[in-house]
Amino acid sequence: MQLYTGGQSLTNWIPENIIIETDGSLIADAYATYEADVVMYTHAEIQDIYPDVMTTWGGVIQFKDTSLKWLTTKEYVGNWLYDCTPDVDYNINFKEIAVGNRYNSHNYEGNLPITFDVVIPGNFEEERMLNDVKFSRMNMTYRIESIFLKEYHHGTCGDYDIEFIGKTVDHSEIYATTIGGKTRDDKFDEYVAQVAQDMRNTGVGWEQKDIYTESVQTELSDIGCSVGAGGPTRAGVCESATFDSGHYQLRPRVDAKKQRIDYKYGYFAIDIDDSCWRSGPDCTGYVWWPTLVYSPARIEEAILSPGETYERYLMTKVTNQFVHMRFEIKVYFTTTAIIKYELAERILEDPVFDQGNWIMNAEIGGARTYTIVMDQGTSLWDVFSELFGEFGWIINSILIIIVVVVAIYIFIQIGIPVLKGAGTALRAEKKLERR
Questions:
Q1: Are 293 and 402 in contact (CB under 8 A)?
Q2: What pLDDT does 266 receive?
Q3: Is the pLDDT at 173 greater than 60, yes or no?
Q4: How far apart are CA 120 and CA 116, in angstroms?
Q5: How far is CA 381 from CA 32, 188, 284, 391, in A?
Q6: pLDDT band per the 50, 70, 90 thresholds, residue 198
Q7: How many angstroms separate the CA atoms of 393 and 416, rounded?
Q8: N or C end of the chain: smaller count of CB under 10 Å?
Q9: Are 286 and 400 in a shared domain?
Q10: Could you tell me whether strands 88-97 and 63-76 are parallel, antiparallel, or unpaired per DSSP bridges?
Q11: Which residues contact 387 (CB under 8 A, 6 or more apart)?
């Protein structure tokens, strides 16, 4: 806590009795009213509230880097050996303040005794000669008769804002796309889109919420006595008097800027190659050339964590408080001369700290999206179309004719003799039954 005084003012001077003695000396009485100010305030910074906060060697606040993993993938190519890629992790990265475990509230309270003194200007001898004429120094006596709290107010020692730059509200996305050969319908694309939707339906991903303010401690700035409190001092002549402000409380306000990040982790093993024309183990059945049968891409395995919330501590704001008291002091003077006076009122300024604004990048980096790139495979029809262009359909037609011819030839060579043999055996069996 800090304290300073000032604002001493003579606000009123009221002459009372003026008596001239027989020897020509003079006695004059007067009441004077003075005012004076006392200011108490806190001057705490983040490092004072959190002594273990991370700082650089120069004492500047330092932010720690935090990373959260929200997705791990393994991709199967879908062939006979079930080749797969290594696990790939997807993380989000961001900065936050590390305040540590110790906390100081900077709560000040107690009684503040304030002493007022009357200082008589001048420093010369009781008597002095000037041109053989003896002059006597003016005598003055006084007593502080009363001290009152005239007024007081309290407030903030300046204020500042915390500004955030970058994209402060964001979320993850899961997409799917296709590569590879051509298809004569859109079934495969539908399958791929469905895989992406199935992954989204699990809730895997992250979402950055709005930044909010959390009150760590409220401010206190008050004193125990009220306006008009005070009273007469002890009787008799006194050069100083003490005023007790009563029980006071003074404490800065502390607010935290925080943000929730909701996330759910998932591990997915994905079949990304659904080319079934080669009749691999991932297909639903054998494929007869040149027809291409599409099998849906599959999520072979999904390991999911329950949804979690991470709360990051973006910044702490310390708002210092002050109490400004103005006192009225009445003094009774008796002098041996008529006092020449000048009224004046001086104002003691409130404490103001120009701290500037905190600027912080609250954007989240790392992996915002995951895209499944799936291969729809290539049929013989596509192969010949690529090789022979517009004549590819002729080659495919020839292959179809060859397949049909071969099938007829096999039927003639094998199927018909088998059928003839079966008929001969049946007739022989019937002859035996008639006998």
A1: no
A2: 92
A3: yes
A4: 13
A5: 113, 16, 20, 11
A6: confident
A7: 33
A8: C
A9: no
A10: antiparallel
A11: 395
Whether 281 and 396 map to the same domain: the answer is: no
Which is more confident, 183 or 83? 83
Are 34 and 243 in contact by the 8 Å Cβ rule? The answer is no
List residues bridging with 108 in a β-sheet: 250
The DSSP code for 340 is P
**Which domain covers residue 422, as residue numbers?**
381-435
Q: How far apart are CA 372 and CA 177, in angstroms?
A: 6
Q: Which DSSP string do the residues of 50-88 spell out, in sequence order?
A: -TT--B-TTS-B-EEEEEEEEEEEEEE--STT--BPPPE
- 109 φ/ψ angles, rounded to the nearest 5 degrees: -155, 155
Confidence check: pLDDT of 124 > 60: no
User: Closest by alpha carbon to 149, among 201, 242, 64, 226?
Assistant: 226
Backbone angles phi, psi at 207, to 5 degrees: -145, 130
Q: Which of 141, 122, 139 is nearest to 32 (CA)?
A: 141
User: Terminal CA-to-CA distance of the chain, rounded, Å?
Assistant: 130
Which domain-ending residue is among 361, 378, 395?
378
With cut-offs at 50, 70 and 90, classify the pLDDT of residue 343.
confident
Phi, psi of 163 (to 5 degrees): -105, 135
Residue 293 has pLDDT above 50, yes or no: no
Angle at 376 between CA 375 and CA 377, to 5 degrees: 90
The confidence band for 398, taking pLDDT boundaries of 50, 70 and 90, is: low
Same domain, 200 and 132: yes
What pLDDT is attached to residue 92?
95
Q: Which of 296, 240, 304 has its CA nearest to residue 266?
A: 304
Same structural domain, 188 and 271: yes
Q: Where are the beta strands (DSSP E) in 25-172?
A: 26-41, 63-76, 88-97, 108-117, 127-130, 133-136, 140-156, 162-165
Place of tokens 């730059």: 165
Give phi and psi for 432, each to the nearest 5.
-65, -35
Cα angle value 83/87/91 (rounded, 5°): 155
**80 band by pLDDT with thresholds 50, 70 and 90:** very low
Helix H or strand E segment including 192: helix 187-201
Which 3 state secondary structure label does DSSP give 256? strand
Task: Tell me: pLDDT of 122 over 50.
Answer: yes
Of 376, 413, 379, 378, give the one whose Cα is nearest residue 399: 379
H and E: helices and strands count for the chain:
5, 22
Question: 293 with 419, same domain?
Answer: no
